[in-house]
């Protein structure tokens, strides 16, 4: 079945057992990945994610059905994320959609699918699957989508401001989601605690008043400069702690996903090119270097440590110290890999 912007958002935020597969296609790969992350969040922090790629599934079509039906090692929720380039996984997907029982849901990211794709046609015709195309947003339609995206995170926007954000982000949904998250933190908003924001907030964020310090510290940590990191942390303001934690978590997850794709056999240049295409120019070089410095396993450990630091920060205990220690340890580990 085909989903529109609102229905795919509702479906990903509250996954239904009746939907076996979500196909996220279209040229805006960042938007598809943002939607995939939204689904992962809905599944819960403890959910197990299994990553597959098109070539491996093409060689063994039964694997997708087997993974969807398999029980998690520790009994937690489970989902499969499959990245394809074209129709190489069509046999596996057809088997999944036709199986008597599927078990765990599958999210397929397919930025290169054409409208004539057999995979796309199969999903559109299936009552137990959803397909959504991500495209760069433009004009008034972009404004309406950004208003809805802002509402989801507790940020209230005028249509004029929403259009401005869409234009500043070149219609890229992933960049828009990132900007809205910064606005959410800036305004201390939440879905159950909505706040209105205006041009002043957008201008301050755009000029780097809130973001520059956390961004530099994140680069110091993942690039392996513990000395600069320690100096920056010592002068960090309390209000910047949460933005720093969020920025570090986003970077760790992004790098982990990039490394998983590279270690899975994808071209490093293609992976890095796709990931940095819409990134802020100051971060493109550091992120490319960091992706070559780390391993997926090492980054998974960093993600787990940052989650522990967040729990400490929320608990009101030694959260600041835990965050600093985690970042400094990350910086030392990166320095040893240089």
Characterise this structure.
This is DNA-directed DNA polymerase. It comes from Sphingomonas jejuensis. It is a single chain. By secondary structure, the protein is α/β, with parallel strands linked by helices. It folds into 3 domains: 5-133, 3-Layer(aba) Sandwich (Rossmann fold), CATH 3.40.50.300; 139-206, Helicase, Ruva Protein, domain 3; 212-337, Zinc Finger, Delta Prime, domain 3 (Up-down Bundle). Helix content is 62%, strand content 9%. The chain is built from 17 helices and 7 strands. It has helices at 5-13, 29-43, 54-59, 62-69, 90-98, 118-125, 139-153, 159-168, 173-187, 199-206, 212-223, 226-234, 241-263, 268-276, 281-293, 296-315, 319-337; strands at 21-25, 48-53, 78-83, 106-110, 129-133, 155-156, 195-196. The strands form 2 sheets. It has a 5-stranded parallel sheet, with helices on both faces. The protein has a two-stranded parallel sheet with strand order 6-7. It starts with a helix and ends with a helix.
